[in-house]
Amino acid sequence: MGKSVSKQFAEEVLKAHNDYRKKHGVPSLKLCKKLNQEAQQYSEALASTRILKHSSESSSGKCGENLAWASYDQTGKEVADRWYSEIKNYNFQNPGFSSGTGHFTAMVWKSTKKMGVGKATASDGSTFVVARYDPAGNVINPGHFEQNVLSLKK
């Protein structure tokens, strides 16, 4: 995959994130070269194994991570929209982490500043997308969800 394709894709994912973040009144993210490289490397690793699982870096809390798989070549906006659609399952009255809303909360996490995006195509034509976030969101310490996952601005 050519660099220009990946750069354009990353910018599309970033723009969708920032459009959504604006609706929640939180600051925009910036793309980070290092995170882009790491996300790209990991997306290629996923594409080679064709198993969608979180990286050890994200499990240890070094970075936040959203993953997406599709049987076709997904656009950046589609991926971001799918992650964000979990907002319908998020209970702002009872904030906290759940597996059904973790993509959404990572996207709009207020204190996250930077992101990186990678996309790789597997031999069967399916695509794996990795987004990395720094600092990581979805911190389960008390009060963090209240402070970082803000409801939609009226």
From TrEMBL:
Location in or out of the cell: Golgi apparatus membrane
Predominant location category: Golgi
Topology within the bilayer: Lipid-anchor
Coiled coil: none
Gene3D superfamilies with a match to the protein in the record: CAP
Gene Ontology CC: one annotated term: extracellular region
Pfam family, one: CAP
Similarity comment: family membership: Belongs to the CRISP family.
Protein name: Golgi-associated plant pathogenesis-related protein 1
UniProt gene name: GLIPR2
